Amino acid sequence: MNARLLRFAPFVLPLALTALPATAADIQVVVTDGAGVGFNDPTPATPVGGNTGTTVGAQRLIVFQEAARIWGGLLPSNVSIKVDSSFTSLTCSASTAVLGSAGATTIHADFTNAPVAGTWYNKALADKLAGAPQGSNPNTNAIRARFNSELGKTGCLTGTFFYLGLDNNAGANINLLTVVLHEFGHGLGFQSFTDDSNGKFAGTGTNQFPSIFDRFLFDTTAGKTWDQMATDADRMASATNTGKLVWNGANAATYARAYNAKPRLFVTAPASVAGTYTVGTAGFGLPLSSPGVTAEVVAALPTDVCSTITNATAVAGKIALIDRGTCTFILKAKNVQDAGAVGMIVANNVSGSPIGMGGSDATVAIPSVMVSQSDGALLHGALPGTANIGVDPTQMAGADVSGRLLMYAPSPYESGSSVSHWDTSAFPNLLMEPNINGDLGLTTDATLFAFHDIGWFLGSTNLPTTWVLPSSAHAQGQNNAFYTTGLTVTNVGAGDASLVLKFLGHDQDGTGGAEVSRTVAAGQTVTYADVLGSLFGVSSGFGAIRITADTNNLKIVSQTSTPPPSGIGTFGQAVPALTGNDLVTTAAPKALLSLREDAAFRTNAVIANATDQPAEADFELKSEAGVPLATGWVVLLPYEMRQIGNVIPNLGAPYGTANATLVVSTPTADARIATYAAVIDQKTNDPRTILPVTLGTLGANGNWLLPSSAHAQGANNAFYTTDLTIGNAGTTTATVTLKFLGHDQDGRGGAEVVKTVPANSTVTYTDVLESVFDVSSGFGAILVTSNSASLKVLSQTSTPPPNLVGTFGQSVPAAGAADFVTLAAPRVLVGLREDSAFRTNAVIANATDQPAEVDFELKSEAGVTLATGWVVLLPYEMRQIGNVIPNLGAPYGTANASLVVSTPTAGARIATYAAIIDQTTNDPRTILP
Question: In what order do the strands lie in the sheet with 687-690?
């Protein structure tokens, strides 16, 4: 199957108008279909994957609206971006299809605030930069998008349809949401307007200009960008200069250096064939990762494995070397897997480079790669051998030696695909490649970085943003507890931030809540101790707080605490303010994991309406086996917060329930609901914060790193143990490998245990180090790898207090692909302190099998650098930096500090968090990056 994505580019009329302040983009889907077809198709449909539509047309529209929401949340514009959208018949056959096409309706040059003179900009970007609609008709919509209405019908990828769910669980079908994200990407600016038939720039006469996209196309052979080339013929030749046409933007190159690890087959024995081999990757099976799979290599029989393998005993536990043949790659992989192999190497049967292997089957759980015909013959002649199938994080896939992403420039030229796409050699696959790939997540990956390059964020460092802190308190609790909340705001931007804080209260319309205004200077951290009492004059109360600011450069976290029954020290929890994709929407239900209600623990759930309109919140409580236990719903008033105390029995589920999952969703269009849960010890009243996770898959990466776990003695006679919870939100059983990495050592030799997690269920490994790894005393990180991208991984670490009655502790989620510190993404830990009341430990863990440098910059609440430092982590090494503030050389007594964690190492992935620990009780609060 060859599912092709197509772009197009109409012409333009320039116009200049006055700029207005930037804000998050409002992208609107404008339906242009006629009655009864496309978006108006009345065919009944069952809701699927978070898509609540009940007709085919309604589900299609919800998918488009979700793509608009995702892009709109990432790009700044104060001009609405309208997308003419329709379903129509596009080119297709039984084996190949154009899935969709999209592009700018008009292009514009030399408008007010145009960053580069004599340069075409797509309408959406020109509107944003000018601050007003461009063109002779300001009502012209910015993008036109068409999608194939024939998909799945006889003769058009027969039987392969668009999947209309929002959870990325397309299986053997094609994920429409991914395709729409791709096509909207073209319309928003990932598009050259140069004529592909003759190399001429768009426009006529003196108005013939390169586009802003063309100015970033660099030919490494010619040593020139397209706008620097002297002739149209030079550009035509460059468009087919395979492997030599690159994107010359610094932001996209930063992405490539940080994220694009190169797939490899690394043969270690025999010495005569040892080395690294170029491979083609598979769209099915275990995603390639580091450290990957290492095993002996043997030949499987018959060599094409199109039938049952006859030497299964020899293949079991090994990597099978096979030949490309007449059957599908999926069938080969299943036959190899059924024989017990742990990986598959396919030798090509034609000359030339190895190719990518298409197909999708969730039951394939082994990694597969293809080598060239000549390399395959070499390996066949040297068996048995030993090899590793994985990625080399020190090498970049889909980029040149300078780290610039390759553009798609095949020879001969492919109209509709060449130039305006990333090259297909990128790994992991990228959204804007010319073909749809099954491993794409719901992410804009390198495209957003390219949009930085072409100007989408010029003049937009400060975007008005709203956060909701779901709960705060100045109030009496159970068992003589009295809870107060401190709110910490760190401004990591270059300009001062103006804030309006609004106390919404609880169980009421929060519209009329009290407001206060504050300013947080650039680089500054401010903590509002007992925020309800100090800012709002609340003598007794609790509820949500809305924070609106003129910038998106804020990091906001709260700490709510109470003295323990002894009155000495504190117990408490940290809760971050939520915004954007943290919130429950119609397209994005959230799950709260590992909830319980029994003699030891109770659970309170919090929901808060982040909008000024009523919103329904729906609940489904599931057992650890995925069985529905109870359902419920409430209608929240505008800006209303509710705490659902003892949520498990409150919804009607039995007392004694443990390891439950609460799914929070909403059917209300445009709703935005903040949620979290507190699992509270019945004896101490100490809470652990359970933050919401997004359901469905977030890409093909099934790897998670839990930065710390313990079965070990702590300070003041504490003994810490960690419970590990793994939720499988997928539809098939997940195979999971747990690897204990230890601490302060090379973790590659750590113990491994393989587990399975059934579909739609949750498994908790109580005291995971002892129960799974038989550790009698130790602590360290745990690497979780899986054949599923639908896992959610969470831990709870706890200890009895000094009187041995009850527990206190903290919840720490595992870090996934989007959470790591990388070359392109430093992280900050805020609100840290070291004094007589609290100490801070910082944890860092290397998620790769290569050494990685980690750099630290500790800043005061005024933004002044207090100390710096660095360490080089061994492969898979975890370190806990106890008392991190004085450890780095900053003074004792420091409070409200922020720690910036970064890395200069290409390919590095660093998990980090901090624990702020009460000096008297040893109770920690989790500070996530």
Answer: 641-644, 601-609, 673-681, 687-690
Q: In this predicted model, what pLDDT tens digit does every residue of 574-633 receive, in sequence order? A: 888 988 768 888 767 888 999 999 999 999 999 999 999 999 999 999 998 989 999 999
Bridge pairing between strands 368-371 and 293-299: unpaired
- Tell me the three state secondary structure of residue 760: coil
Q: How many domains does the chain have?
A: 6
Q: What is the CATH number of the domain that holds 750?
A: 2.60.290.11
Residues 6+ apart with CB under 8 A from 165: 48, 49, 50, 51, 177, 696
Residue type, 598: D
Q: Which residues contact 389 (CB under 8 A, 6 or more apart)?
A: 265, 288, 292, 293, 294, 319, 343, 345, 367, 368, 369
Distance CA 634, CA 381 (A): 68
For residues 220 and 277, membership in a common domain is answered with no
Measured in whole angstroms, the distance separating CA 733 from the mean position of its chain's CA atoms is 22
CB atoms within 10 A of CB 271: 10
Per-residue pLDDT of 465-501, as tens digits, reads: 788 999 998 988 776 778 899 999 998 887 888 999 9
Helix (H) or strand (E) holding 86: strand 81-88
Strand blocks (E) in 149-235: 162-163, 174-175, 217-219, 224-225
Residue that terminates a domain, selected from 694, 721, 755? 694
Backbone angles phi, psi at 656, to 5 degrees: 100, 0
pLDDT band with cut points at 50, 70 and 90 for residue 398: confident
Q: Are 229 and 222 in contact (CB under 8 A)?
A: yes
Total H helices, total E strands in the chain? 13, 53
Side chain identity at 43, as an amino acid letter? T
Residue 699 lies in a domain: no
Q: What is the C-alpha separation between 893 and 565, in angstroms, rounded?
A: 27
Domain with 589, as residue range(s), is 580-694
Q: Which of 22-26, 464-468, 509-513, 677-681 has the lowest mean pLDDT?
A: 22-26
